Structure formats: structure tokens, C-alpha cells
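Dear colleagues,

For the upcoming journal club I promised to circulate an example of a predicted protein-ligand complex. I picked one with magnesium ion because it came up in last month's discussion. The inputs are reproduced below in full, followed by the predicted structure.
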Amino acid sequence: MAKKTETKLDFGSKWDYSSAPESAGHAEIKKEYGLYINGKFVKAEDGKKFASISPSTDEHIAYFAEASDKDVDKAVKAARKAYNEVWGPMAPKERAKYIFRIARLIQERAREFAVLESIDGGKPIRESRDVDVPIAANHFFYYAGWADKLEYAFPGKTAKPVGVAGQIIPWNFPLLMAAWKLAPALACGNTVVLKPAETTPLTAMKLAELIHDSGLPAGVVNIVTGAGATGAAIVNHPDVDKVAFTGSTGVGKIIQKAIAGTNKTATLELGGKAANIIFDDAPIDQAVEGIINGIFFNQGHVCCAGSRLFVQENVKDIVIKKLKDRLSTLIVGDPMDKNTDVGAINSKEQLDTINKYLKIGVEEGAEIYQPNCTLPKKGNWCKPTLFLEASQSHRIVQEEIFGPVLTVQTFRTIDEVIDKANNTPFGLSAGVWTDKGSKIFNLTTKLRAGVIWANTFNKFDPTSPFGGYKESGYGREGGLQGLSPYVKLS
Ligand code: NAI
Ligand code: MG
């Protein structure tokens, strides 16, 4: 008789996945990138440049020109000329064709953009591939559709472009933020000088190449690279009509001061400290998954991240247990691996900031929990972190950390959680998890936040307006509302 054999499968305590790296062979990276001014790629006048470094490997990626006041002046002059001579006078339906073409080209080159975004910024390829790039293309599609329909967007009024827009964007969604800024500005007939963040200039310069290939007339979009001084040169240029900024509340305040007393208008999309509220009647497993996604998505480099969790007291133990269990299965590491959940922290500076807050949280007496995962040796990494027993007065609860760090507090009544959730200088977003529609509507009318998600989190769509209250800034991007900052109505 044949001996009975038994196959024993041992998966250990959790599933281990073999790595599934995305190929980067098709993505071309030049040694050096110039500024895109007046339809040409040019060096900075004084020849200055800076390097972008991969946050996941510490490797040098490429050099980028550092634009000075003189370069910004050239870009603004090109934008003004294009506004007066080409883009302003063009029939709206012709403008729409260019914007549609940009959208389609992004779709065609989606894989290349996704790979470059993950290399330069450190975010998991799954996110750049499934979130950043498709939504960026959708923004261009959506606003291309509005270009020749502004009379329906603003019934009974005539909508004219504002002129030259200066747009400054951060490093957390480099391509997507460029799309949020460019698409509505172009659709309304404005021309643009755009500056990406100094740690993530790569996809912006790729976008410049794509825009160039689209045949968009010279000077309509100018893209200049550099750090804060380049941004300030755009804000302070006398011939910029409108400033659009996404970034820190500190720089937002500087910009507001700089434009006070001028004719410039501004939209500011600044920091956040979103409350994610989970009631005892919520579907707990889905809620836990949403809470995890809400803060660990993009390493917590999200202005609307659900960074403060409020759990109804009677489900605290089960929620915390499930959160800890889920945290231990998150895969932290190589952004180019398709299995990765949490990628690299965008820069050494940002990692220092996050580590500073981890120390502060412990000193303040909150209980820190991190899973037992190993981090890569090179690059900037932070373990996903929970701070249990956090309290309202803690700095980790009040200040924006912008990293994979979730504070956990409890509540008993609805009024209590509304008070606690609103007790912050920010007001960008919030989340509610409950089975009851009435509770959702009660909270959405009382929470002071620009965006409130119910039984989901961090969902974006070009048709929905996005923006904040209080120190989270003002103005809306996305949707019909996102057209308003780019038109003068009469
Ligand atoms: P930042 O506000 O300094 O950078 C954002 C953009 O503004 C970059 O393009 C930068 O070059 C530019 N900039 C810097 N100084 C400027 C100035 N004086 N005038 C005009 N433009 C200027 O943000 P940073 O230092 O990279 O991050 C610091 C903190 O800001 C983060 O820890 C996070 O809390 C918050 N932040 C919020 C973002 C959001 O999406 N709301 C995005 C990035 C950062
Ligand atoms: Mg970089």
C-alpha cells in the first residue's frame, strides 16, 4: 500500500507575498531638466540647479534648474503675451480641444507617469497608478468639458478669465496637484506659471514635455522649478493676477500677507487635522479598513488625512484590537513593489518632523503602538504608528504631523464628539462611520470641515469641490466651484 503523504503548508503568522516590482524600464529620466518657458526648455539664467533624490533609495535622480526672479519674470511675461495674443482671444471650444488632448496624453503615458511619481516622491506604485494618475487625467477631461459651457456654469453672467495665474504646489500629490491647478485655469482662458515642490519636480517636468507635445501654444503653460524663493518670486511678481497655493499653513500666511493691498486674488489650500469618527453602530471591519486607509494612505502625506480617530467608548477595545491587527499586516517598503501599502517618507526634513512628533507624543503621555515590521536600510521610513490614550490638549492631537501617525481618543455622546472634532485650528475634512443616515446628516451640518466623508474616506472626484475652513485655507478646487477663482463675472 502506498504511503500516505501529507503536504503541510505553513503560512506563518501572516501572509508573505513575494515582491512584485513594477518595471521602470519604459520610463525615461534625463540627466538634467530645464525650465519650460514660452514653449521652450531653457536653463536658469544664472545656471543654478538642484538635485532631486529618491526618498526610498537615497539615489540621485536628476538635476533641475533653479529659477530665479529673472527666470520667473520671463515666465510671467510669456504667460501675459500668450494670454493677450493667443489663449485669451481663442474660441472656448478650441481651448477645450487642447485640454482634452492633454487628458488623453496623460492616459496614454499613465504607466510612465506612475513609475516616475513613485521614484521621485516615494509613494506606493499602486497609489500613483490607481489614484494620482487617473484622477489627474480626469481633472483635465472634466474641466475641458466646461471650457465652452461657462455661460451654464454662471447663468445670467459673463465669465471672463482673470489673466495670469501663479500656481504653487506641494510634494504629496505632485502630478495630481498640477492637474487640479492647471485644468480649471486653462478651461477659463487663463495662462499659467506653475511651480512644483523642490523634492518632487520630476512629473511636473514630464508634464511640461507632454504639454509641449500636445501642441499647446507657447507661453500658455510655463513650468519653473525651484524652492521657496522661486515660489515667492511668483507670488510677488506684479503682473500675476491670481495666486493658487497648496502647502503649509505657514507659507499660506506669508502669501496672504504678500498679496494684501494688491489686486491679486488667492486660493489657499493648507493643512488639516481631520477627525474620523466611529460610532458603535458602524460596520466595524469596514470602518477599520477605512480608518487605516484614511491615515496610512500616502504615508499620511495628505492634507485631508484622517489623523484623529474618535471611537465611541463602548466599542473602543474591539476597534483598537482590529486596528493593531491590521497595522501588523501593512506592508511597508519599496514603493515600486505592487504589494506595498506604505511607501517612503518624502524627504529627510519631513521624516525629522514626524520623528519630532513621535517623541513629543511619548513625552505628553500618549501610549505609542507600532507594528513589528522591518524598515529598509536606505531611504526615509516611518512605521505606521498609533497613539492611544491621546487627549485633546496634546500637541499630537492639535498640530499637523503629515505622516503615518494616528491619534486615538474616545467619546460617549454626539455633542461631545462634535466639540472635540471641531476643537482644532483646521477645518479641511472629516469622516463619519455609522449605520444611521440621521447621524450622518446631524454631523455633516455641525462639523466645521470643507469635506465630510460618510462610511468611506479619502475619495476624490473632479466633480466634487474640495477646500477648507479656518486655517485650512479658503477657496474651492474641483467641481463647478473650482471654476470661480479663475473667472471675473460681470
Ligand atoms: P511648504 O508649504 O513649504 O511647500 C509647499 C510649496 O510652497 C512648495 O512648492 C514650496 O517650494 C513652496 N514655498 C515654500 N516657501 C514659499 C514661499 N515663501 N512663497 C511661495 N512658495 C513657497 O511645505 P513643506 O515645508 O514642504 O512642508 C511643511 C509642512 O506643510 C508639512 O509637514 C505639512 O504639515 C504641510 N504641508 C501641507 C500640504 C497640503 O497638502 N496642504 C502639502 C505639503 C506640506
Ligand atoms: Mg524627490
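Two points we might discuss: The mean pLDDT is 95. Residues 275-454 form a domain with the Aldehyde Dehydrogenase; Chain A, domain 2 fold (CATH 3.40.309.10).

See you all on Thursday,
B. R.
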